[in-house]
Amino acid sequence: MKAHISTTLVVFLALFSGTSVWSANPVVSIRAIAPAGSLQPGKPAALTVELDILSRYHINSDRPLQDYLIPTTLQFEPRPGVTFAKTTFPPAQVKKLPVSDSPMSVFEGIVRIEAEIIPAADITLKEVVIRGSVRYQACDDRSCLPPVRQPFSLALPVGYSASSPVSSAIAPEKAEPAPGQSAGNPESTDFGSKGLLVTFLLVFLGGLGLNLTPCVYPMIPITITYFGGQAQGKKGSIIVHSSLYVIGMAVTYSILGVVAAMTGGLFGAALQYPPVVVGIALVMILLALSMFDVYELRMPASLNRLAGSSQKGFWGTFLMGLTVGIVAAPCIGPFVLGLLTYVGNRGNVILGFSLFFVLALGLGVPFLVLGIFSGSIRRLPRSGAWMVWVRKIFGFILLVMAVYFLRNLLPGLLAYHLTLALIMLLAGIYLAWIDPVPAAGKTFSYVRNVVGIIFFACALYAAVTGLSGGSAGMPARFAEQTSSGTIHWQLYSESILSRAARESKPVFIDFYADWCAPCKELDTHTFSAPEVVDRSREFIMLKVDLTSADDPQAEALRKRYQARGVPTLVFLKPDGQEIPGLRGTGFEDKEVLLDKMNRALQLSTDQKSPVSLLQ
Length: 615
Description:
Blueprint: H1 5-17, H2 21-24, E1 28-33, E2 45-53, E3 58-60, E4 73-76, E5 82-88, E6 93-95, E7 104-107, E8 110-119, E9 127-136, E10 138-139, E11 148-157, E12 176-177, H3 196-210, H4 219-231, H5 235-262, H6 264-270, H7 274-291, H8 301-308, H9 313-327, H10 329-346, H11 349-372, H12 386-405, H13 413-434, H14 442-472, E13 490-491, H15 494-503, E14 507-512, H16 517-526, H17 530-536, E15 540-545, H18 552-560, E16 568-572, E17 584-585, H19 590-606, H20 610-614
Parallel strand pairs: 13-15, 14-15
Antiparallel strand pairs: 1-2, 2-8, 3-7, 3-10, 4-9, 5-8, 6-7, 9-11, 11-12, 14-16, 16-17
């Protein structure tokens, strides 16, 4: 991508004049493009805000997949006589980047944001000056710059036609760091942090599993028999009926997903308030209790009659697919509501449509397969108490979702993962050994043991993740906590530097921020490595939190050590002087960091600090 000459010039001056890129952050050029012609009173017009991102950088999308990342937002200053309506961001790119193990939702290159503006019907101004700002966070493949709010302005004529588009310009204003998250575009929740493919697979398997619940399973042979009667034994016609039935289910659920995603802005903003989060978690728990037969969810009789009424022909089959969710709602409703909550939180229409389409495919696959191979229907296991047992699996899944929504209210990542581990451990014990399932055969006993083992494995994984990642990636406010298996981080202070000089120990400083993806990868993969933890005991290990630009002490340290991005890794000799050639910017694997730590130890041993020589 061809970068703007002005942007390149700013970068050049910043690098060679000593001005910190941290304060200017000139990686994005902003151009406000006016609508064709003039604004007409009372009529909406489309304003375009174009972002030109330097080729080596990307910025987070308006709905990043990781909940700690800062979304790109567009805001306008209130203006008398003008209403700012809908803002539309382009589709983001979901791609695997070196800064994160998980796929990221980003913008690259040229990005155009559409905003609808409506002049008042009684506006008397001949010209309206629109002022706004774009907030974004930029990263390259190794490090991240701080989030900034970059202003722009544009003068638009009102009330008369023009033969050519109004020329646009941005005000020569300086981008300013904005540590607080702006309202309007909520952060997305990273429910699919292990990758979208895994998320889709889990939803598909969830839909497949819902077929085993007592509301759906008995319908399978009845529905397939109905297809055979309508097709009068013709194989091709049976396949068409089965396909239309599945398509009907897909249409219903996909519409639900789109509606949930379109309300995502309101939903995501509401999730910033703890009472709302607690309320959602309580709903999840109540839905889980219904899966445990504590009480029974029932649909209104009128809806059941509507769904139960059948019509002949292909249209009747399609209508049955559209309404099957109503009949099966007592069993599949809680899981669907949980997925609706997740989609509403993410607010991505394409993702909402796709997830519910995949859910419908999971629900419809047995109908489609058994419709094609109708003779196989005799081999289906008989209905029985085992279906109630299957419902309870989804009950435990809903409890896990409740904990997921409460994760930011828990004391930390360790508490979050251990709570998940406890629920899944109890699920494995209950489902495998405690829950009585009368008249179940030997095959079912094997199945329940396998399910129990799967839950045990998930519990173990959650516990290990919490104990390792939770402590290795602890924020600076917990730095004084120590553990034999983790680095003993401390908050930066001059007194600690003096102690390093007295003890003749080199110093390692990690400049990090909560919104920094490679910082998370460092904590998870490099700082948690046993070899790095062992070598760190020969250093004074310090962290400097650059999350907020309003922290004067952190800002002073950033300028003192010229940290232009995060993470920045600095090695100091015991006398406080930086060791040349060892500074790192961005993610470093354990082999690279260990080599630098060994070299720092060697250089610090060769030249003792003045204080140590006097002792």
